[in-house]
Design brief:
Layout: H1 2-27, E1 37-41, H2 54-66, E2 69-73, H3 81-89, E3 95-98, H4 105-113, E4 118-122, E5 136-141, H5 144-159, E6 166-171, H6 178-192, E7 197-202, H7 209-221, E8 226-230, H8 235-245, E9 248-253, E10 263-269, H9 271-284, E11 292-295, E12 302-304, H10 313-327
Parallel strand pairs: 1-2, 1-3, 3-4, 4-5, 5-11, 6-7, 6-8, 8-9, 9-10
Antiparallel strand pairs: 10-12
Helix pairs in contact: 2-9, 3-4, 5-6, 5-10, 7-8
Length: 339
């Protein structure tokens, strides 16, 4: 009997403990959902520890803003891009964002092998790839509006110089996204000075500064008072040629005013805005399939950098007025021909 009473007492104590534990468990906060995981694939080299280029800073800031776990990965020079992407696709990421390697045929081949993984071509349209599968999406950062403002400002300043009105553009290759910058700049220059001559040349090069410098010098010899760099590292030659000639230069992608007082302004792309959009859609499960997402200046994806202090205040005021018309939708920039 004593053993039986002890057993019933022990059972009662155990039941109370279990009930208390259940009450504590129900009162405790539910575990938070795991963060969405995204791989961002860069070209060989990736982001060095002290990298300050917009694309790498944009990834870091967008990850902080959205709470997405973004891992930057890149193949080594000895690795096959296709094998590297296939291995990445097997790691359980919700999406793979391709920046710098977006147009490679290897991307499309791997995307076909892994139809359950979203592949996002960052700063590239689906239309720039051949027969992409439905799980391949484009993310386009359209800088035409900002380039329009730069072209308008260059043309207005050109009208203040004696002689014919001439401005120039030195691009890398004739094709998107370079021609988006060119289209906007040409439209803006025509609005600022309808009779201006607009020179457009392509270096077919993103790296060799000498090629861009030679094209810029040729445009300067033909009377250009401003040259617009749309050629990445090659375009640093354009910027240098402008400085040597004592004329205006316009930078691209990031604020290049640090190159000297000859920099009129820069046409910026906000990679952060693009990554925020991608990461947020991954997080909410609203990526969609088989389409492009296009962000413009109205979305904070493009704009102008620092404007030279030598620009008259009246022109800056007019420029800001045009900017407001664009961001409110009152002024829309149509596509041109890209020179």
């Amino acid at each position: 009997m004593r053993a039986e009473r002890l057993g019933r007492a022990a059972a009662g104590v155990m039941g109370a403990v279990l009930l208390a534990a259940a009450a504590v468990a129900s009162a405790a906060p539910a575990p938070s959902a795991p963060k969405a995981r995204v791989a961002v694939v860069l070209d060989w080299g990736g982001c060095p520890p002290k990298h300050t280029v917009n694309v790498c800073e944009g990834i870091r800031r967008a990850a902080r803003r959205t709470g997405v776990r973004a891992r930057v990965v890149a193949p080594t020079v000895r690795e096959s891009l296709e094998d590297f992407l296939a291995l990445t696709a097997q790691q359980g990421y919700e999406a793979i964002v391709l920046a710098g390697v977006a147009g490679e045929p290897a991307v499309i081949r791997v995307a076909r092998r892994y139809p359950g993984v979203a592949f996002i071509l960052f700063s590239t349209s689906r239309a720039e790839t051949k027969d992409p599968p439905p799980n391949v999406q484009g993310m386009v950062l359209d800088a035409r509006d900002a380039a329009f403002l730069a072209g308008w400002l260059a043309a207005k300043l050109e009208k203040r110089r004696p002689g014919p009105d001439v401005v120039g553009v030195v691009g890398a290759f004739k094709g998107p996204p370079v021609t988006d910058f060119v289209d906007g700049f040409v439209a803006g220059a025509r609005r600022g000075a309808p009779r201006a001559k607009i020179l457009v040349d392509y270096a077919n090069e993103f790296v060799d500064q000498a090629k861009c410098a030679a094209l810029a010098r040729r445009q300067i010899a033909r009377g250009a008072g401003t040259v617009f760099n749309v050629a990445g590292a090659c375009g640093l030659g354009t910027m240098k040629a402008a400085a040597d000639a004592g004329i205006w230069a316009i930078g691209v992608d990031s604020d290049q005013s640090f190159l000297g007082p000859h920099v009129l302004t820069s046409v910026l792309k906000s990679f952060e805005a693009g990554f925020v959009d991608v990461f947020a859609r991954v997080k909410t499960g609203k990526l969609g399939t088989g389409r492009d997402t296009t962000l413009t200046m109205r979305d904070g994806a493009a704009g102008l950098g620092r404007i030279s202090r030598r620009v008259p205040r009246s022109l800056v005021t007019q420029l800001r007025g045009l900017e407001r018309q664009i961001t409110t939708g009152k002024l829309r920039i149509s596509r041109q021909t890209g020179g």
